[in-house]
Amino acid sequence: MISPKQTSEGRGSSHFGHTPLLIIHIIGIFLRIWSVYSMYGNLSQPAALVVLFIFICLVPSSILFLALQKPWKGRPLSNQLVPPSIINGAITALYFILWGKGLKSCGPVRAILAEYSGAVLGVLSATLYAILCFQNQLKRRLHAITITAATCFLFPVAMWDFIIGSTSDNKIALPFSAWAFLGTILFGVILIFYVDSIAEERLHMVFSSPRHLMIAGGCIIIMEIVYKMDFSLLGFIIYSLILGIASWSSSIRSWESWKVGSVQLMGPSGGVDGGPNMTDMT
């Protein structure tokens, strides 16, 4: 029989074992937010082409994702998974366009916080449907297809953006900054995906969770001070608190929907094995 002391020691050792993963996650979020500020420094130029910059960053990113995940190898992907991933690629391409335009016009703080606001709304809307939990390897293979499809969908828009920009009176801001280009590829697209995937799998920390928002908020404050931006600390804290409350509520609803969906999939006699704790989702 396991004593309460042994149980507490096991939980303590488990949390201590997760500390390196948490540190890696914090570093990954910081580098990603740093890349956003570097991207903003380039896109804030009057003649900078937002869609063309994003497309140029997505081309090597999609190639690296395909090389790392090799979605054509291993167990064949079913026809029920590939078409939704391609459709998701079209939605992702539209998201990149709107997010890039918002970053250029509104700045990095609003663009980053808009991601968390959208994530909270996405989780709330997902409670209306069955939440599907894919294996991590399968999710990564599908993500490689999604990013590749988004790059393909962005190609004609980027070419149109280039043609319109070349015929205008302003000169096109080329070439891009090497740090903004490499930072967006390595940290803004690739590293943050794997870091968030590990955090979701091992730490049960989803993107819409308050802990994720708290880490990102601290990184934003550091970047705003370093880059000497026009920043209201009080307003940022108030908005983050409101968003954190909504994020906490959405995490609970996401957990409840996940639990109901898992019970329905496994049957009334089966248990949910390895599911996240409700407290871990926050």
Describe this structure in words.
By secondary structure, the protein is an all-alpha fold. The protein has one domain. The protein is 76% helix and 0% strand. It contains nine helices and no strands. Helix 5 (108-126) runs parallel beside helix 9. The longest helix is centred in the C-terminal third of the chain and has 34 residues, at 233-266. The two termini are 31 Å apart. The model is unreliable at 6-13, 124-130 and 265-282 (pLDDT under 50).
N-end to C-end Cα span: 31 Å
CA-atom Rg in angstroms: 21 Å
The helical percent reads over 70%
What is the β-strand count? 0
Overall geometry comes to globular
Main sheet characteristics: none
Identify low-pLDDT runs.
Answer: 6-13, 124-130, 265-282
Helices and strands: which structural class?
A: mainly alpha
Portion in strands: under 5%
Number of helical runs?
A: 9
Q: How many domain modules?
A: 1
**Succession of helices and strands:** HHHHHHHHH
Overall pLDDT metric: 79
Summarize it:
This protein is mostly helical.
Defining key terms:
282 residues, mainly alpha, 9 helices, 76% helix, 0% strand, disordered C terminus
How would the blueprint of this fold be written?
Elements: H1 4-17, H2 19-43, H3 50-69, H4 82-106, H5 108-126, H6 136-167, H7 178-203, H8 210-227, H9 233-266
Helix pairs in contact: 2-7, 2-8, 3-6, 3-7, 4-5, 4-6, 5-9, 8-9
